[in-house]
Amino acid sequence: MSDNDDGSSGGIVTCSAEFSKDLDQFSELFEGAKKREAARFAMAIGIQKGLREKRSYWKKPKNQKISTIAHLSGQFDDKGRFDFDSLFDILDLKDKDDDTPIHHLISEYVTGGMRYIKDNELKNLDEWSRMKDDFPHLFTQED
Amino acid sequence: MRLLEIELTNWQPYKGAGKNARKVSLDGKNGEKNLIIYGQNTHGKTALWQAIRFAMFGRVQKRISGVNDNDWKPLVASETKDEPLLNVTAHEEGTYDFGVRIKFEHNDAKYELDRSYSKKSGITIPRRNSQMEQTFTIRNLDTGSYVQEKQKFVNDILPEELARFFMFDGERIREYRDLFRDTKDVHLRNYIEAILRFPVLTQGSEDFEKMERTAAGQISKHAKKHRKGEAAQIKLSETESNLEVENDILTDYEEEQENYTIELGRVNEWLKSEEEGKRLLDQQDGFQRDKEQAIEEIESIGKKMSKALPGAWRAIITNKIESRLERLEKEIERQKKQTQRQGEIKTELNHLNNRLHGRDCSACGTTLEKPSRKEEAEILEEKVELENEHEKLEKARLDPDPDFLYKRQKALTNIKYDMKLDMLISLEEDLLRWKNKKRVAVQNFDKASKNITKDQANKLAENIVKQRDLYSKIGIVKTRISDKIEVIQDLDDERDRFQDILGVGGGKKPTAYRKAEIKKQLLQELKNAWDSVTAVHRENQRKNVEETATDVFLKLSEKRDDYKKLNISENFQLSIINNKNKSDSASQGQWALVAYSILDALTTCSGIEFPMVIDTPGRSMDDVHFTNTLEYLLNSKKQVIIFPEGSELLPDVGDESYSHRCAATYQLSQNKKDSNITDIILRKSNLRSN
After folding, report:
1. Distance of CA B94 to the CA centre of its chain
2. Are A132 and B310 inside 8 Å of each other by CB?
3. What is the pLDDT of residues B161-211, one digit of tens each?
4. Domain limit, last residue, from B418, B442, B471
5. Which of B418, B450, B471 is the last residue of a domain?
6. Mutate to test the interface with A, among B297, B300, B316 (most CBs of A within 10 A)
7. For the purposes of burial, counting CB atoms within 10 Å of the CB of B23, is it exposed (0-12), middle (13-18) or buried (19 or more)?
8. Is residue B95 part of a domain?
9. Do B149 and B32 share a structural domain?
10. B247 backbone dihedrals φ, ψ, rounded to 5°
11. pLDDT digits 0-9 by tens, B445-454
12. Are residues B4 and B83 in the same domain?
């Protein structure tokens, strides 16, 4: 299956090679399918903050491959448990005439999210409080 | 044994007691010992003959009809035909004491044997044996003492079963003759073997065997004990060897401990001189431990955070999802209301149509009045308005597609996750604190490191490690020494135990064991020797009997020139061998002589000294042979007591021919007053005067 293969469960979910190492490092904070969990976290941040980095803009250093997160988007969505098509559609995460396949969309938001993580040093464990401003709904509001 | 006197008290036909007791004496003044008692049949010869057996064995056979008769005469009876031992007349007169007293010489001592019966106390007239009680004594006349084991004493002189060879009836000689010829007669053969003392020899062999078995048993017991000793010896050697090894190991351990202790002393001495350095090093260690603890805590916090993070992605976008979900729900609600309104419009249109055409009302069934022209125009206008509204609603309701809306609603609801990440902040605070601690620990560690040179620290660390190592090694060696001492103590105990088992002999065969072995060996040799001697003795005895019997037979037989010898086979089968070296059937008279010869030979060869007591000796013999027999018997070394019947030997003839060879001759005579009483009349006497 090619990198650009379309399909509800097909297509490789990736991340820009720029964040390969960061993603690996960030993955260590998670349990189970560490890299997938870390990528979902990054994707969620990307979605929440509207940080979509289109694949066409990814700078690819020479001899550096795109970091593979899941060989199939079906693996990434936990075999259809989570309907990312509907999610991206309802959250208006793509334009009406945007025909970007779902695995690319995910990859683009993962990359966007990874940038935020890197910039905010979330991978160091001790910077979660920074999220408090950007994601207040994740924390109990103090009166 | 030599009989000296026979005294009868109310014994069968011999009535009289005390002074009136009947006596027969055999004590010749010149050593004469033989006795001839003449008597007619039924005059009491047999009764007198039986008196000797009674004195010896305490019982008398009723009839002499065979060697195995066991029909004994009763002690008391009132009828003569019952043949009681107590004189019938005495019984009638109320005298119930009877018995026989004999005096005899045995092994150069004189004895008086008294066997008598009297009625038991409380019994008025005894009628059964059980009503009588016996008195039996043997007194040494030289010493006046009484023999204790009386019957044994008698049996040692002559066993009862052998009495038949010494005391027999001439009338039975034929039976003896037949028996000697019949080799299948087991009893007789047994008697012959008995009189020739073969059983004694066999018993001797058996005794040796028994003794040998006993010795073997003792050896077995010793061997068992000794084997235990041998095993103990082996185990003792093993134990001693183990002890040696263990002691060597213990010495090694102790040396090792000493070396470690010396080394530790040096290290401690050095460390003491480096107190400050050691303090710094301890400080450094403390900071290192702080750092390590902080790292552990940080790791632990990281793990706690990891548990909170999965699913957090859903929480991040949940607020976005919720706002969209709200919009979706409103849209769905709107569609629902529009659909409802469409239904209402349809009902209204239906009602208007019913009014236009004057049909029944769909809701209540009432027939509607047909409208006027004006009303009809209004209804039509209203209808158009409603149809337009319906069309508009239909367009709005299907945009967007309701299925699409439901699918999206479901997808968003599934992803939505209400979760707060407050814990992460709290953990982050802890993390920061521990990170700070770690930083401080690292800083302190570095600072402490600056106060002590690397070489110094290395040397200190090296010595401290050495110190710990030595303490540890000494601890281990101490444990080993302690364990080893226990092992050695156990081995010591074990050695003591084995030494106890071995005793003073130290595993060698004890004297008793060696003695038992020697004893068994000796007994084995003795038994072998005994067996070989027995076989030789048996053969010698057979030959002896054969030669003696042949000698007697040839002396007695008038046909001695026709015969060569008597032959006695290994199993005592008897035959007469004639001059042609063939077995001769011979006449009955000759066989009677053979029987005498054999009896004489057997008694001679037996070594038993006992009188030959022969009742009616001349039966089955002609006069010549009888004379020869008497000549032979009365001239032999044996004491001979004969009871010839009148026709065999007339008293006058007998006295003339043989009285000089007898202590006395007597004649039995029926009492003239009482035919149940026999009188004993002395005829010729060579008796010692009292």
Report:
1. 64
2. no
3. 888 888 888 777 767 666 666 655 566 667 777 777 666 677 777 788 888
4. B418
5. B418
6. B316
7. middle
8. yes
9. yes
10. -65, -40
11. 888 878 777 7
12. yes
Q: Nearest CA of chain A to the CA of B292: how many Å?
A: 19
Q: Give yes or no: residues B346 and B471 share one domain.
A: no
Position B545 scores a pLDDT of: 85
With 50 as the cut, is the pLDDT of residue A6 above it?
no
What tokens does B335 get? 């569609």
Alpha-carbon gap: B407 to the closest alpha carbon of chain A (Å): 8
| Residues with Cβ within 8 Å of residue B220, at least 6 apart in sequence | none
- Indicate the number of domains in chain B: 3
Q: What is the DSSP string of B172-200?
A: GHHHHHHHHH-TT-HHHHHHHHHHTTHHH
A40 touches chain B (CB under 8 A): yes
B135 and B32 in a common domain = yes
Residue (of B273, B292, B294, B274) closest to B282 by Cα position: B274
Taking an 8 Å cut-off on Cβ atoms, the answer to whether A47 and B317 are in contact is: yes
Distance between CA atoms of residues B18 and B378, nearest Å: 189
Residues in chain A: 143
The answer to whether residue B492 sits within a structural domain is yes
B226 and B101 co-located in one domain: no
Contact A138 B419 (CB under 8 A): yes
If you average pLDDT over every residue of chain B, what do you get?
86
**Interface with B, mutate which of A41, A79, A96 (most B CBs under 10 A):** A41
ipTM (interface pTM): 0.90
How does pLDDT run across B25-61, given as a tens digit for each residue?
Answer: 999 999 999 999 999 888 888 899 899 999 999 998 8
Separation in Å, CA of A142 to nearest CA in chain B: 11
Nearest residue in chain B measured CA to CA from A125? B428
Domain boundaries, chain A: 13-135
- Mean pLDDT, rounded, for B395-419: 85
Taking Cα atoms as reference points, which of B121, B122, B101 lies closest to residue B113? B101
Tokens read off for B86? 């107590």
Do B252 and B372 lie in one domain? The reply is: no
pLDDT the model gives residue B179: 66
Q: Is residue B517 part of a domain?
A: no
Give one DSSP letter per residue of B203-250, joined into a string: HHHHHHHHHHHHHHHHHHHHHHHHHHHHHHHHHHHHHHHHHHHHHHHH
Distance CA(B544)–CA(B31), nearest Å, equals 28
Range of the domain at B222: 207-264+461-501
As a whole number of angstroms, the distance between CA B352 and CA B355 comes to: 5
Distances (CA, A) of A17 to A27, A35, A67, B43: 15, 14, 5, 160
B371 lies in a domain? yes
Q: Do residues B342 and B397 both lie within one domain?
A: yes
- B345 and B409 fall within a common domain: yes
Nearest partner of B174 among B636, B593, B465, judged by Cα: B593
pTM to 2 decimals? 0.48
Question: Chain A: nearest CA to B321, how far in angstroms?
Answer: 7
Q: How many angstroms separate the CA atoms of B510 and B504, rounded?
A: 9
